[in-house]
Amino acid sequence: MSSLPDNLFDLVIRNVRLEEDGALADIAVRNGLIAAIESNFRCDAVLSFDGKGNFAFGGFVDTHVHLDKACILDRCSICEGTLTEAVRETARAKPGFTEHDVYERAARVVEKAISHGTVRMRTFVEIDPRAGFRSFEAIKRIRADYAFAIDIQICAFAQDGLTNEPETLDMLDAALAGSADLIGGCPYTDPDPEAHIAKIFELAVKHDVAVDFHLDFSLDPNKTDLPAVIAATKHHGWQGRVSIGHVTNLSALPQAIVIKIANNLSEAGIALTILPATDLFLNGCGHDHLVPRGVAPAHILAAHGVVTSIATNNVLNPFTPYGDASLMRMANLYANVAQLSRDAEIADVFDMVARSAARQLDVPHGLVVGSEATIILVDAKGPRAAVREIGRVVAGWKSGRQSFHNGNPKIHRPSATQSVGHPSLPPKSNRR
Ligand SMILES: [Zn+2]
User: Fold this and answer.
1) Is 97 helix (H, G, I), strand (E, B) or coil?
2) Do 285 and 393 sit in the same domain of this protein?
3) In-domain check, residue 431
4) 279 C-alpha to center of ligand 1: Å?
5) Domain check: are 354 and 384 in the same one?
6) Which tens digit of pLDDT belongs to each residue from 169-227?
7) Contact of 251 with 219, CB cutoff 8 Å
8) Domain around 315
9) Cα-Cα-Cα-Cα dihedral sign, residues 95, 100, 103, 104
10) Terminus of the chain with fewer CB atoms < 10 Å: N or C?
11) How close is the Cα of 186 to the center of ligand 1, in Å?
């Protein structure tokens, strides 16, 4: 705690907008908390920052990232571009992961995420006989080393099955007894999906933690583990603590059925994450025209009460051979793919990488007096403009301390005396 006089603040961020086309306001910060939000706030502060009319908000929340297997394109081959191949190739690479290697690759992604305005993240970490605890140890260090800018939740994750590999269950149990924050499962890679779901819930109940499943990653609505997850959630009273990711087979259903499923999810308190980059890349590989998009209609589920988020998933690996950990870009991608245009729809999309995503992770979000001064500035006149234009993230603060600045873009116009194409050439009269 600082010992500042009552009329002195640690920081004031001036001239920012808090809503679309809103009036300019100043945010004053004291002891890591927002102390005041007012227009033309008259005060003295140790530090002052001119927000230049940018949009200020509580930062992006990435609900689903795999830091441990990011940036491994150089050690995998992609021939089919299918989910089966991605799982197989990554499992093949995993025994070669060292703690140092995982740390270096994860740090690369986390630093990109920070500079793109992400302040909270849930990362899955595979813990099994191939990965051992090496990835887990590396990501725990990442969580500690980057806590100055981003809060990271670690989800101990069974990517390659449980019933076929019982030792994984004991390893996940040990990780949860250590410092993993929650448990994650993947029923579609297990020979017995229902038993897999039951075992994941057993661990969740034992350690009193939230659950996050990779689920129904196909275009076949008849192949679904969703009813089992809904039943287990209700049976254990885990409403509000269960997330499901992908669920791409919802994209293969008529809207009337999607709405029925949305009502069931909402009633069971189950949140949905969609991962547009991966869902688009891995679905519909067998089609040579009219390729299905394979992205669940998150906006329809959100409109029917489901807590939804749009997240990164993978970066530069066989699941997603692209990526920059930018949620602004991902929100724009989803809006484009889902053909959304109305202001209310675009506002909902922004929520899915901000407020709604925070709700899913059960973490605070938003700029109000008394809340943590975690603030991100975007070069846009509001959240809708940010999604439409992929607004440039300018700068960020975590608990009142500046964590990054991306610099100001500058256009170098030719001066009146310079020739545009050859600025170094002397005037013609001086040439021989
Ligand atoms: Zn995932």
Assistant:
1) coil
2) no
3) no
4) 10
5) no
6) 999 999 999 999 999 999 999 999 999 999 999 999 999 999 999 999 999 999 999 99
7) yes
8) 60-360
9) negative
10) C
11) 9
Cα separation, 273 vs 77, in Å, equals 27
> Over the stretch 242-301, which tens digit does the pLDDT of each residue have?
999 999 999 999 999 999 999 999 999 999 999 999 999 999 988 999 999 999 999 999
Ligand 1 centre and the CA of 347: distance in Å?
Answer: 25
The CATH number of residue 320's host domain is 3.20.20.140
Cα separation, 369 vs 28, whole angstroms: 9
125 CA from centroid of ligand 1 (Å):
10
Query: How far away, in angstroms, is 314 Cα from ligand 1 center?
Result: 7
- Asked whether residue 241 falls in the same domain as residue 274, the answer is yes
Are 54 and 73 part of one and the same domain? no
CATH number for position 23? 2.30.40.10
324 CA → ligand 1 middle, Å:
16
Q: What is the pLDDT of residues 34-65, one digit of tens each?
A: 999 999 898 888 999 999 999 999 999 999 99
The answer to whether residues 270 and 382 belong to one domain is: no
Cα 383 to averaged position of ligand 1 atoms, centre (Å): 26
* 115-160 residue pLDDT tens: 999 999 999 999 999 999 999 999 999 999 999 999 999 999 999 9
| Ligand 1 center–CA 346 separation, angstroms | 24
How close is the Cα of 38 to the center of ligand 1, in Å? 41
Looking at the structure of the chain, the number of domains it has is 2
Predicted local distance difference test score (pLDDT) of residue 215: 98
* Ligand 1 center to 409 CA (angstroms): 34
Cα 211 to ligand 1 centroid, rounded to whole Å:
13
Is 113 a member of any domain? yes
Instruction: Pull the structure tokens for residue 149.
Output: 């800018």
Q: 136: CA distance to ligand 1 center in Å?
A: 16
73-118 tens-digit pLDDT: 999 888 888 888 998 999 899 999 999 999 999 999 999 999 999 9
CA of 362 to the centre of ligand 1 (A): 19
For 174-177, the CB contacts below 8 A with 24+ separation are: 174/133, 175/125, 175/127, 175/133, 175/136, 176/203, 176/206, 176/207, 176/209, 177/207
Could you tell me if 184 and 271 lie in one domain?
A: yes
* Percent of the chain topping pLDDT 70: 95
User: How many whole angstroms from 258 Cα to the centroid of ligand 1?
Assistant: 22
In this structure, the answer to whether residues 273 and 380 fall within a common structural domain is no
Report the separation in Å between the CA atom of 311 and the middle of ligand 1, taken as the mean of its atom positions.
9
Asked whether residue 183 is domain-assigned, the answer is yes
Report how far ligand 1's centroid is from the alpha carbon of 214 (Å): 6
- Supply the pLDDT for residue 3: 57
Closest C-alpha to 156, from 121, 125, 197: 125
Give yes or no: residues 294 and 378 share one domain: no
> Phi and psi at residue 61, in whole multiples of 5°?
-125, 115
- Domain assignment present for residue 43? The answer is yes
